[in-house]
Design goal:
two-stranded parallel ribbon; 2 strands; disordered C terminus; mainly alpha
Length: about 325
């Protein structure tokens, strides 16, 4: 049975946004079928890639030399792209069974230091106010306007300081007046964040007892090495697009390679996702074929998207 996208639209406040007439409601309904089978099959493939790249990294560590660097980056990219199932399951579209989506979102988010419960509320607000200055939380960190800010964003080191601050603020219930976190939601967010921190403490204690550096060498260090590629992908989603609520112009779709599309759970079809967030990841290629000619920003690759971004630089900028 096709899923009605009304509930998702209502939750994110995306009803009636400019561009939503690109496809009629019946066509959207036909594309909105959720599937546990599709989600589990994709998740199994992603986990298999993480295991395979982890094995390659172990071989590189054993051999020594410069092979360690690409092995770290490859395994790291496989890990950091667990952001994608956290994102997809946060929309309740990765799986048909609700508890399965919530469990996958939380566990995948924990790997990338991204609490799924907090992220879901942050991200829904981003959908409600995409590219609206002063309202879209993603614009809280200004887009790069020059090479210094661009290099800083790609390095991705700010991500970890942001996440540590987010953990502290949420776990201690010091969230202030974030518009996307209503008072009724705070107890759940506090519990979820404390549980995630508890998981990290448990991993650290086990590593200490076993005198093992594995959490650093196979998890944290690879993630730092893989983060720049993920930052480039995420930067391409809206940078250089219109700063208004028109879904046809404020988001970029990138025609990425099949491996990248797979690890990113088809998120490169990003304009399609923003226009119709109820359409699950495995139907986004079909959606793209139906509305591609209506989209303002469709780029053939991520290198091409980065070229479009840097072409807008008009001078130096300060690191944000």
């Amino acid at each position: 049975m096709a899923r009605d996208d009304t509930a998702i639209d209502a939750a994110m406040g995306t009803q009636g946004l400019p561009g939503r007439d690109a496809l009629d409601k019946a066509a959207v309904q036909a594309l909105s079928e959720r599937s546990d089978r599709a989600g589990l099959r994709h998740l199994a493939g992603h986990v298999a890639i993480i295991i395979a790249t982890g094995w390659l990294l172990a071989e590189a560590y054993a051999a020594g030399g410069l092979w360690i660097v690409p092995a770290l980056a490859l395994h790291g990219f496989a890990l950091v792209t667990l952001f994608a199932p956290t994102h997809e399951a946060g929309h309740a579209t990765a799986f048909k069974t609700p508890w399965l989506g919530k469990a996958v979102a939380w566990l995948a988010g924990a790997v990338t230091l991204n609490n799924a419960d907090f992220y879901r509320r942050y991200h829904h607000w981003h959908h409600r106010f995409t590219q609206v200055p002063g309202s879209d939380p993603e614009l809280g960190r200004p887009k790069p306007r020059g090479w210094p800010t661009y290099a800083w964003r790609l390095a991705g080191l700010y991500y970890y300081s942001d996440k540590l601050r987010e953990m502290w603020m949420t776990a201690t219930d010091r969230l202030g007046h974030l518009p996307y976190v209503p008072a009724r939601a705070r107890p759940r967010l506090v519990r979820s964040m404390r549980a995630m921190i508890g998981l990290y403490v448990l991993v650290a204690l086990v590593a200490i007892l076993l005198e093992s550096w594995a959490p650093v060498t196979y998890w944290l260090l690879p993630m730092v090495c893989g983060q720049p590629v993920l930052r480039a992908i995420l930067l391409a989603e809206h940078t250089g697009c219109s700063e208004d609520r028109n879904g046809l112009t404020n988001t970029r779709t990138t025609l990425a390679s099949r491996p990248v599309r797979f690890l990113m759970w088809n998120m490169p079809f990003h304009a399609e996702h923003h226009l119709y967030p109820a359409v699950p990841f495995h139907r986004l290629p079909d959606l793209h074929r139906q509305i591609a000619d209506r989209l303002r920003h469709v780029t053939p690759s991520y290198p091409a998207a980065q070229a479009e971004i840097v072409a807008t630089f008009g001078g130096t900028a300060q690191i944000a």
